């Protein structure tokens, strides 16, 4: 029987994404030896990990960030969302396509999280500088630990605590401050119960029994807010209308396609004069970015 060969690229990823090729597990394990015990063979005989195991994914992330981006000592506190590096890299490259000259942008990330993933990827790929905000002091403390271990990255990232969970841009930006781009991966569940059911559904889709512990990771603010992503991004659109000059492009990930019509309407209702929907894919997973902006008033 002919041995199956790994695909030349991962289907759907952005052409500029450095993670399109199959994972080079030998090099990854050499960089992070603790990843080794988690590597196993799939039915085709090819090396892989259990992507439902957050510890394995966290160690894979650490290895990818070390070998591809030169990041030292990356880690996450227990129980925080483990972001997939290839998917987050796709976000960066798709958003870069909004600009004719994407290098050196100043970027505002709403909800930077504990892993600092978007600033790491955006700075490495395009030399972007970041202001990262979050409502969670522990998440920002984790980001500071990553920055302390990586001085070159620390010079490109500023962290700010959002003290009011009901606000998004307001309270963390100064009057007259301006960015080229804002990005956000909003909490997409509407309640803690919905988030818990989402976790159970993931396990069922894998044909496995859900454990007592939450193995897909994520703190409350990472996973849910009242009204879910529709309410959150609608609020973002409303705040952007009050500060239209804050960003050349405002943007947010939209995880559920059925929410897109309402969010598109919210952005247009806020008075946006530019709107783009950027489709993304990683294997069978589909998502999209909603981006909008306000052109300055015409000179009289």
From TrEMBL:
<keyword id="KW-0808">Transferase</keyword>
<protein>
    <submittedName>
        <fullName>Ribosomal RNA large subunit methyltransferase F</fullName>
    </submittedName>
</protein>
<dbReference type="GO" id="GO:0052907">
    <property type="term" value="F:23S rRNA (adenine(1618)-N(6))-methyltransferase activity"/>
</dbReference>
<dbReference type="InterPro" id="IPR010286">
    <property type="entry name" value="METTL16/RlmF"/>
</dbReference>
<dbReference type="InterPro" id="IPR016909">
    <property type="entry name" value="rRNA_lsu_MeTfrase_F"/>
</dbReference>
<dbReference type="Pfam" id="PF05971">
    <property type="entry name" value="Methyltransf_10"/>
</dbReference>
<keyword id="KW-0963">Cytoplasm</keyword>
<keyword id="KW-0698">rRNA processing</keyword>
<dbReference type="InterPro" id="IPR029063">
    <property type="entry name" value="SAM-dependent_MTases_sf"/>
</dbReference>
<dbReference type="GO" id="GO:0005737">
    <property type="term" value="C:cytoplasm"/>
</dbReference>
<keyword id="KW-0949">S-adenosyl-L-methionine</keyword>
<dbReference type="GO" id="GO:0070475">
    <property type="term" value="P:rRNA base methylation"/>
</dbReference>
<keyword id="KW-0489">Methyltransferase</keyword>
């Amino acid at each position: 029987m002919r041995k199956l060969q790994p695909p030349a690229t991962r289907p759907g990823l952005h052409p500029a994404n450095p993670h399109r090729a199959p994972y080079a597990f030998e090099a990854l394990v050499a960089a992070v030896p603790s990843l080794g015990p988690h590597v196993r063979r799939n039915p085709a005989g090819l090396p892989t990990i259990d992507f439902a195991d957050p510890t394995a994914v966290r160690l894979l992330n650490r290895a990818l960030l070390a070998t591809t981006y030169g990041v030292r000592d990356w880690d996450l506190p227990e129980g925080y969302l483990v972001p997939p590096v290839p998917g987050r890299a796709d976000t960066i490259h798709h958003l870069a396509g909004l600009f004719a000259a994407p290098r050196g942008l100043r970027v505002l990330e709403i909800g930077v999280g504990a892993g600092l993933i978007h600033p790491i990827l955006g700075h490495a790929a395009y030399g972007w500088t970041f202001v990262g905000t979050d409502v969670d002091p522990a998440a920002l403390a984790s980001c500071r630990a990553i920055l302390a271990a990586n001085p070159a990255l620390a010079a490109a990232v500023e962290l700010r605590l959002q003290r009011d969970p009901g606000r998004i841009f307001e309270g963390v930006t100064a009057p007259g401050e301006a960015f080229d781009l804002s990005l956000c991966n909003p909490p997409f569940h509407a309640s803690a119960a919905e988030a818990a059911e989402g976790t159970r559904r993931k396990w069922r889709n894998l044909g496995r029994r859900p454990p007592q512990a939450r193995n897909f990771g994520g703190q409350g603010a990472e996973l849910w807010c009242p009204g879910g992503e529709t309410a959150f991004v609608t609020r973002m659109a409303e705040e952007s209308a009050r500060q239209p000059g804050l960003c050349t492009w405002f943007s947010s990930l939209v995880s559920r396609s059925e929410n897109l019509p309402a969010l598109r309407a919210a952005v247009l209702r806020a008075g946006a004069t530019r709107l783009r929907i950027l489709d993304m894919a990683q294997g069978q997973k589909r998502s999209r970015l909603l981006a909008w902006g306000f052109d300055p008033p015409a000179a009289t």
